[in-house]
Design a protein that fits this description.
- It is a single chain.
- The chain is α+β, with helices and mostly antiparallel strands.
- Helix content is 28%, strand content 20%.
- It has a seven-stranded mixed β-sheet with strand order 2-3-4-16-5-15-6. Strands 10-14-7-13-11-12 form a six-stranded mixed β-sheet. A three-stranded antiparallel β-sheet has the order 1-20-19, covered by helices on one side.
- Strand 17 and strand 18 form a beta hairpin.
- Helix 5 packs antiparallel against helix 7, helix 10 packs antiparallel against helix 11 and helix 11 runs antiparallel to helix 12.
C-alpha cells in the first residue's frame, strides 16, 4: 500500500511536518458520518480509545486492543487539567495524578528535592512574543482598517522600549534566555542575521514622538490565562508589560484576560486591537515551523502579511541543505527585525514532573506525549495539563492541550522519537522523495485496524488530508473551519471557490 503526495513546490521537511499531530488519520467513513466535524468522538489507530469526555473535569481513554504497536502497560488513561501550577503540583504530591505538565519556575527545586517525584526537563524550543496587529481582520469580508501599529516607527519604538532582560530575570526559570531572534538558535538557521534591538527607552520615546505620539497613547494587552513553557506566569507578565509600557513609553495599556479558545481565534485572525501575549513551542525541528507559520502570506495575525518576509520564506522552504538556505534566512530574519510585526521576548526553560514510581515518564521535545510507553505500575495513569482541550479533532486545532489528547487516539503517518526530533515510522513505514522533493511516496503499514474495527488503507489517508487542505471538500468543516496548520504548512488551503 502506498500514498503519493504531489506538491506544488519542493518541501524537504515533508517528513517532519507529516509527523505532526494535526495530520492524523481517521477512517473516511467516520469523517463522512460526522460531517467532517468529529470534534468529540475521534476514531483512530492509536494506543487508546476515547471512552468519555466529562466537560470541565476530565477525559477518559481506555487501551485500544486493536493497536498495531506495543500495547500500553495499563488499562485506563485519564486527562485532567488545572490552570495554576501550584494546583497541579499539589495534586502530584498527593498522588491523585501521576504526571503534570509545566511546572511553575518556583517549584523546580521543590520537585528536584523530593525523592517521591521525578523532575523532567522539557527541551522543546519555544518563543514568547509581544504581538501587535497593524491591520484588523485583513482577510475578513470587511477588513477593520489600520491600527496605531500600522506605523513602522511605532512598532520599532515598542521593540526598543521593552526591557526584555528584566522580564526574563523576574519571571522565567534558570536556563531561560532573552530572544536574539524569533526562532531559537537550537533550530538550524534560526539565528541567521542580526540580533534583535537592545533596550533603549530614550530612543524608543523619540521614535514614538516622530510617529506623532509624544505623550503615548491608550491601548490594551490581551492574554489567556494558560501556563506555557514560554509564558510561565501569564497574568504577572502581562502586568509587567503594562508597567514597562507606561514607564518607558507613556503608553496606557489595559490588561484584558480572555478565554483560551476565543483568544486563539481572535488573535490568529488578526482581530485583537492592541498588544497580545502569545508564543510558540516547536512542533517539528525545522525553521519553517517557527517562521512559515507566523509570517507566511496566509497568516493575518499581525495584519496584512509582509511580502518582504514571506517571499524569502517561500524560497528558503524549498532548499533541503541548511547551509545553502542560510543566506535566505539571514535576509528573512533581518526583514522581520526591520518590519517588527512582533517583538520576540524570551526562550523559556520548562519542566514536567511525575511520581518517582512511574517508569519511562517523559515529556518529548516534539509532538505529543507517548503514554503507551509509560508504566505507572497500576491500572490507571492520570495526566494533568494546563487546560481543557478545545476539541479532539486536531486537524483544526492549534493548542497544545488538544494536540496532546488527540494523538492518544489518532496517529499521523510518521511520529517523532520520544527523546529527539528524529522522525520514526508510524502508520507509514517510511516516505521517500523524488529528486527535487516535490513528490513524496509513503509506504503504508499493513494490517492496521482502526478502533472501530475498520481497516486502515490509502483511502483514509486521502480522506483525512483532503478534509483538511481542500476548501471545496464537503468535509472541510472542523471546529473553526480554519485548518490553520494545513494552511500555513502546505502553502494555504485550497479555497472553496478554487
Amino acid at each position: 500500500l502506498t500514498v503519493q503526495f504531489t506538491l506544488c513546490s519542493p518541501q524537504p521537511a515533508f517528513q517532519q511536518i507529516a509527523a505532526f499531530t494535526p495530520f492524523g488519520i481517521q477512517p473516511s467513513e467516520h469523517l463522512e458520518a460526522t460531517g467532517g466535524a468529529p470534534l468529540d468522538n475521534p476514531i483512530g489507530t492509536g494506543p487508546f480509545v476515547l471512552d468519555s469526555w466529562n466537560r470541565g473535569d476530565s477525559i477518559i481513554f481506555s487501551r485500544n486492543d486493536n493497536y498495531w504497536g506495543d500495547a500500553p502497560a495499563f488499562d485506563t488513561l485519564v486527562f485532567r487539567w488545572a490552570t495554576e501550577g501550584a494546583a497541579r503540583l499539589l495534586e502530584l504530591q498527593s498522588g491523585t495524578v501521576d504526571q503534570i505538565t509545566n511546572l511553575s519556575p518556583d517549584d523546580f527545586e521543590t520537585v528536584r528535592n523530593d525523592d517521591s517525584l521525578q523532575f523532567l526537563p522539557v527541551t522543546n524550543p519555544n518563543t514568547l512574543y509581544l504581538a501587535m496587529t497593524s491591520q484588523l481582520d485583513p482577510f475578513g469580508d470587511a477588513p477593520g482598517g489600520d491600527t496605531v501599529f500600522a506605523d513602522p516607527l511605532v512598532r520599532e519604538a515598542i521593540a526598543k522600549g521593552i526591557d526584555r532582560q528584566r522580564i526574563v530575570d523576574n519571571f522565567f526559570p534558570d536556563g531561560s534566555e532573552v530572544a536574539s531572534h524569533f526562532t531559537p538558535c537550537s533550530i538550524p538557521n534560526g539565528c541567521e542575521g542580526d540580533a534583535w534591538y537592545d533596550f533603549d527607552a530614550a530612543e524608543a520615546r523619540d521614535l514614538l514622538a516622530q510617529a506623532g505620539f509624544p505623550d503615548g497613547f491608550e491601548t490594551k494587552i490581551f492574554y489567556r490565562d494558560v501556563f506555557r513553557g514560554y509564558l510561565p506566569e501569564p497574568g504577572s507578565v502581562a502586568v509587567e508589560f503594562q508597567t514597562q509600557l507606561k514607564e518607558n513609553l507613556n503608553i496606557d495599556a489595559e490588561v484584558v484576560v480572555m478565554e483560551s479558545g476565543e483568544f486563539i481565534d481572535e488573535s490568529t485572525n488578526g482581530r485583537l486591537d492592541g498588544f497580545y501575549l502569545l508564543g510558540w513551542g516547536a512542533d517539528y525541528p525545522h525553521v519553517t515551523n517557527f517562521l512559515d507559520f507566523h509570517f507566511s502570506k496566509s497568516n493575518p495575525q499581525f495584519g496584512e502579511p509582509h511580502e518582504e518576509i514571506w517571499s524569502l520564506l517561500e524560497q528558503g522552504s524549498t532548499i533541503a541543505d541548511a547551509a545553502e538556505a542560510a543566506p535566505i534566512y539571514e535576509q528573512a530574519n533581518n526583514a522581520i527585525r526591520e518590519l517588527v510585526p512582533m517583538v520576540p521576548i524570551a526562550h523559556g526553560a520548562s519542566a514536567s514532573a511525575a511520581l518517582a514510581t512511574v517508569e519511562n515518564a517523559h515529556f518529548p521535545p516534539f509532538g505529543a506525549p507517548q503514554f503507551e510507553s509509560v508504566n505507572p505500575g497500576k491500572d490507571t495513569f492520570v495526566f494533568m495539563q494546563n487546560a481543557e482541550p478545545i476539541s479532539l479533532y486536531c486537524a483544526d486545532e492549534t493548542d497544545g492541550e488538544s494536540l496532546s489528547a488527540c494523538q492518544q487516539v489518532v496517529e499521523p503517518l510518521l511520529n517523532y522519537a520520544i527523546d529527539s526530533g528524529d522522525v520514526v515510522p508510524a502508520l507509514a513505514t517510511g516516505c521517500t522523495a523524488n529528486e527535487d522533493a516535490t513528490v513524496w511516496t509513503c509506504e503504508l503499514r499493513a494490517n492496521v485496524v482502526f478502533s472501530d474495527g475498520s481497516h486502515f488503507d490509502a483511502n483514509d489517508v486521502v480522506a483525512s488530508w483532503s478534509a483538511g487542505i481542500d476548501g471545496r471538500n464537503p468535509l472541510h468543516v472542523g471546529n473553526t473551519g480554519a485548518f490553520e496548520y494545513y494552511s500555513y504548512l502546505w502553502d494555504s488551503v485550497i479555497p472553496s471557490d478554487g
